[in-house]
Amino acid sequence: MIAFVHGQVATVGLSSAVLEVGGVGLELLCTPGTLASLRVGQSATLPTSMVVREDSLTLFGFLDDDEKACFELVQTASGVGPKLAQAVLAVLAPDDLRRAVSAEDVKTLTRVPGIGQKGAQRIILELKDRLGAPVGGRSAPAAASAEPWREQVATGLVGLGWSAKDAEKAVDAVAPEAGPVPDVAALLRAALRSLSRA
């Protein structure tokens, strides 16, 4: 198992980053928050979790060990795979997740794309005694609670090198396209198009 990766950031994409380690480029799937902390050309160390499937080896990268631990623990809930676990951490910081589970806050958990009422109740039931209390780490910004996609798109744009001010303008420009179930990747592409036209 690969516990962490340390190397120079070669590229930062919409959902992954490539770190050059000993002349080899390793692609790590990351949340928008993690991608926003990376800068091309700079050195970075990311805790990782490797998911082995019959037809693939996938490396997930995290901001810190706490995020990695939550990612691995959330997957122990029935019906939660690595992609859904990553989506949980894209919407909720580890402490926000702990608070939602300990308070049995189904509404907060259903903000995660792919988690419905029953899925949220199952996560609460199976993880309540295992996630523990909040450890006082970072929290997701308050604005994200209303529309998590806005924060995800803005964070992705900042991670790609745009200023926070430009990112906010682009998010506002694509907001009418969001709809009831926002497609974050499509909105991010639309935001990039609006920035390239500006």
From TrEMBL:
<keyword id="KW-0233">DNA recombination</keyword>
<dbReference type="GO" id="GO:0003678">
    <property type="term" value="F:DNA helicase activity"/>
</dbReference>
<keyword id="KW-0234">DNA repair</keyword>
<protein>
    <recommendedName>
        <fullName>Holliday junction branch migration complex subunit RuvA</fullName>
    </recommendedName>
</protein>
<dbReference type="InterPro" id="IPR013849">
    <property type="entry name" value="DNA_helicase_Holl-junc_RuvA_I"/>
</dbReference>
<keyword id="KW-0378">Hydrolase</keyword>
<dbReference type="InterPro" id="IPR012340">
    <property type="entry name" value="NA-bd_OB-fold"/>
</dbReference>
<keyword id="KW-0238">DNA-binding</keyword>
<dbReference type="InterPro" id="IPR003583">
    <property type="entry name" value="Hlx-hairpin-Hlx_DNA-bd_motif"/>
</dbReference>
<dbReference type="GO" id="GO:0016787">
    <property type="term" value="F:hydrolase activity"/>
</dbReference>
<comment type="similarity">
    <text>Belongs to the RuvA family.</text>
</comment>
<keyword id="KW-0227">DNA damage</keyword>
<comment type="function">
    <text>The RuvA-RuvB-RuvC complex processes Holliday junction (HJ) DNA during genetic recombination and DNA repair, while the RuvA-RuvB complex plays an important role in the rescue of blocked DNA replication forks via replication fork reversal (RFR). RuvA specifically binds to HJ cruciform DNA, conferring on it an open structure. The RuvB hexamer acts as an ATP-dependent pump, pulling dsDNA into and through the RuvAB complex. HJ branch migration allows RuvC to scan DNA until it finds its consensus sequence, where it cleaves and resolves the cruciform DNA.</text>
</comment>
<dbReference type="InterPro" id="IPR000085">
    <property type="entry name" value="RuvA"/>
</dbReference>
<dbReference type="InterPro" id="IPR010994">
    <property type="entry name" value="RuvA_2-like"/>
</dbReference>
<dbReference type="Pfam" id="PF14520">
    <property type="entry name" value="HHH_5"/>
</dbReference>
<feature type="domain" description="Helix-hairpin-helix DNA-binding motif class 1">
    <location>
        <begin position="72"/>
        <end position="91"/>
    </location>
</feature>
<comment type="subunit">
    <text>Homotetramer. Forms an RuvA(8)-RuvB(12)-Holliday junction (HJ) complex. HJ DNA is sandwiched between 2 RuvA tetramers; dsDNA enters through RuvA and exits via RuvB. An RuvB hexamer assembles on each DNA strand where it exits the tetramer. Each RuvB hexamer is contacted by two RuvA subunits (via domain III) on 2 adjacent RuvB subunits; this complex drives branch migration. In the full resolvosome a probable DNA-RuvA(4)-RuvB(12)-RuvC(2) complex forms which resolves the HJ.</text>
</comment>
<keyword id="KW-0963">Cytoplasm</keyword>
<feature type="region of interest" description="Domain III">
    <location>
        <begin position="144"/>
        <end position="198"/>
    </location>
</feature>
<feature type="domain" description="Helix-hairpin-helix DNA-binding motif class 1">
    <location>
        <begin position="107"/>
        <end position="126"/>
    </location>
</feature>
<dbReference type="Pfam" id="PF07499">
    <property type="entry name" value="RuvA_C"/>
</dbReference>
<dbReference type="InterPro" id="IPR036267">
    <property type="entry name" value="RuvA_C_sf"/>
</dbReference>
<dbReference type="InterPro" id="IPR011114">
    <property type="entry name" value="RuvA_C"/>
</dbReference>
<dbReference type="Pfam" id="PF01330">
    <property type="entry name" value="RuvA_N"/>
</dbReference>
